[in-house]
Amino acid sequence: MAMTLRLTDEESLALRQRAELENRSMQEVARAAINSYLADRPARLKQAISTVAIEDAELLRRLSQ
User: Fold this and answer.
1) Cα pseudo-dihedral 16, 9, 39, 3, rounded to 10
2) What totals of helices (H) and strands (E) does the chain contain, helices first?
3) What's the domain count of the chain?
4) pTM of the predicted model, to two decimals?
5) Residue 30's closest CA among 15, 8, 20?
6) What is the pLDDT of residues 13-25, one digit of tens each?
7) What are the b/e assignments for 35-47, b being 16+ CB within 10 Å?
């Protein structure tokens, strides 16, 4: 599937520099970043739940009563 990705000038420059550094295309670098982000979702979700449980422990305790 084709899509258009709109980047800021700064994002585009950073992507171009990374692609040149790794001797890969900008598309390859962007796709790898997206795949990494998607693969890491379970770990990020677990961390978010843990953070809420710790930071809002008192609220959660009161709500459970």
Assistant:
1) -90
2) 4, 0
3) 1
4) 0.62
5) 15
6) 999 999 999 999 9
7) eeeeeeeeeeeee
